[in-house]
Prior knowledge:
A hairpin with a 3-residue loop joins strand 1 and strand 2. 16% of the residues lie in helices and 22% in strands. The protein is built from two helices and nine strands. The strands form three sheets. The chain has a five-stranded antiparallel beta sheet. A two-stranded antiparallel sheet has the order 4-5. Strands 8-9 form a two-stranded antiparallel ribbon. It is an alpha+beta fold.
Amino acid sequence: MKKIIQGKVREVYEISDKELVVVTTDRLSAFDVILPTPVPEKGIVLNKLSSFWFNLTKDIVPNHMISEDLKDMPAEFQKPEFEGRTILVKKLKMLPYEFIIRGYVFGSMWKAYRSRAITSSRRSWRSRSSHRPRRAARATMSTSRSRR
């Protein structure tokens, strides 16, 4: 078994020509720099989030995850420090794409959103020249009616 990748947050170990073990650490990075103080149990949280989505979508899109159970890992990883932060995966050819999804809009996207050049309902950019402002539909709840 050899470590083939030590990333900002994850470490990847090759255990055979068909399988890898991915360990999610507590390291914290910002702007591609690993910060000196780790966040306790951050790796466990990240690993659980990843496992949740891989399990939820496996019937839609096959993925690389084999197991998150330590019993299925090589003996070196069957230790308490690897519990909850380790997954066994198929070794696949990686597509070098990264997608970052954020819960906020800033900069020029914020200006475009405010001017309605981008809308969440269409989820696409519209030409400013073809843009016509529309009134936003609002859902309201009436409190004047009694419930039966």
